[in-house]
Automatic annotation (TrEMBL):
PANTHER family: PHOSPHATIDYLINOSITOL 3-KINASE C2 DOMAIN-CONTAINING SUBUNIT GAMMA, PHOSPHATIDYLINOSITOL KINASE. Coiled coil: none annotated. It comes from Liparis tanakae (Tanaka's snailfish). The lineage of its organism: Eukaryota, Metazoa, Chordata, Craniata, Vertebrata. This is Phosphatidylinositol 4-phosphate 3-kinase C2 domain-containing subunit gamma. GO terms for molecular function: 1-phosphatidylinositol-3-kinase activity; 1-phosphatidylinositol-4-phosphate 3-kinase activity. Signal peptide: none annotated.
Amino acid sequence: MGATEVSVQAAPSRQKAEGAIAASGAGAALTRQTLAGGVRAGLAFMLQGTVVTQQAVQAQSREEQSRGQQEGGQEPAWSQQMELQTNDPWAIPLVDTPQGSTKRLASFCAATSKLTLRYGHADSLHNSGVVWSRLLRIHPDLLQRVEVNLSVAFEWDNHLLPFPATGNTTVKSLIDEICRLLDLPPGPTGHRYLKLCDSDEYLQNEELLGLHETIQTSCKLKRVVPLRLLHENNLRHRLCRDGEDDRAPCQLYRLLRPVCVFNTCKLSLQDVLSSYNREVTELMRSKWGINVNTLKFRVRSICNLLCGLSCQELEDAIGRLNRINPTPLSPEETSEYGMAMSVLHEALLKVLHIFFDNFQSDFRGQEVTSDLQKQTVDVEGHTEILRFNISALYQLQRNWLTKYVCLYTYCYECFSLSCELTYGGTKICDTVVSENISTALSSGNKIQCSRVMVFPVVVNQLPYECMLTFRLKVSKRGKSPELLGWAVLPLFSDRTLVQGNVLLSLSTLAEPPVRPSPALFDGHSRAIGVILQLEFPNQPEWRYQRPIALPGSLLFTEPCEALQRKRLNVSKKHCLCFLTHNEKEFLWSKRHSSDKGSTFLHLLLGGVPKWRPQDLTEIYTVVENWTILQPEEALFLLSDE
């Protein structure tokens, strides 16, 4: 248990402490004045953001233990309460997640921690602590006649000496020449570096001088490049990790979260959850239905703190509670009430799980355990069409749902939600639209719509990089629909088909001119603005498996002279956007007689008519049999986005 969690439980509100003491049945002899003083002090520390250290908690424990022995030998109240919360089946604790509450960010932090563990701070090769200058690869023969005008300073002296050099000289050879000129003792390789005076970048010792991007830019502009010769012991502002960095866990959420106070939100949610716990415990103890309305109010308060989020199981459980009479319960009604409370509790845990699984936070509710083992299946076996439900819209503005008395001003009549299924900016099928979501269905600032979106395409026929684009529009009487917000969602994430409940924060910015990409999805993971709730099938877990190349399936055939000449003429265009549709089809149709001497790989793959799953095996076979000589050839395979 972290220090923050201990501080929250060690300093409860007065009502929470009194309820815990009464529920425990222990006759603690603490006076009301002493209890109130401890509560006020604890709350003051929490609101100021002070982290109670473990030593302080232990000191408080020893103090209360001695006080309890003097006043009757009872255990301190805060330890009784912690034990009760641990054993209370209706308690819903909040757990600190400094690494982030979502699986995506938590897995990224875990992977980063593994890398730091594999490459420790003592590994000078992978933890040099310097910023290496970027390289732009060109043929070394082009650098023979390139003259570079340098000016070199020794260590941190400001006196610069002119030093001409050629572009095909290695940085290490240049350092050795400078050392001979300055009559410096030659050191082991890698003990001296050349740093750019006007930047924090360092030249790479084993690379040619003319391959560095900064050197090439300076030569084009005919500028002198100021350098500084430094010994590795005299490097300043190094960024290398130390032992403390290796020991500290990777926690990126604190670096990504927006500027707002989350501790207050956590305290508010924990306080309402504690009130819910007290109401449920009292109702189960008294077997009296008079406080059912108070319990429903606590549940709605929890949902309101979660942007109004709900689920069908929670609404059904609240409906069962509405049928309970505010009178003493009979044995049959007690059994029904217990079942309703269990369903309500599980549904509330599910709502917390959905919220913190989709929106980033530094805390979350306890994990929902399930007896069912989720089965993992290859997506090739998914022979059903793509379909999912639109569950609800949350945080709609009031003026969208309420009529005004002012002349010519009315609320929106209905909403419509459209969804496009695209691959590489191209629609796979027609846009699916759910129309006439009436504003009359609104409850507060949310609408439970429960619409089904169906796409007439089988899931195992969809490419891995498919994107879903949602657009929320509204209609006024006599006016055309107006766009309120949009969001994108990758069909696959981490090789897994999207599943379960998904929350998307709709963006009100103008849609980007480029085609949708997974990078845009991160902008919808903050609980702001209108929130769209989607429900995908949760069982089983469909996994995408990379196709296996078949080396023997692609046999090279020597092309005739006319074919070779035509292919070379097409390949001279170099860029895929300059090729016509027929030229793209021509290159792909002659793939069995293509090699690195006749065309380029990015032009050949650009001619694939459709990147369907059944075509991927042959595509991977072509890629693995293609010899790539320069890294730039692989960069051509990337899109503009």
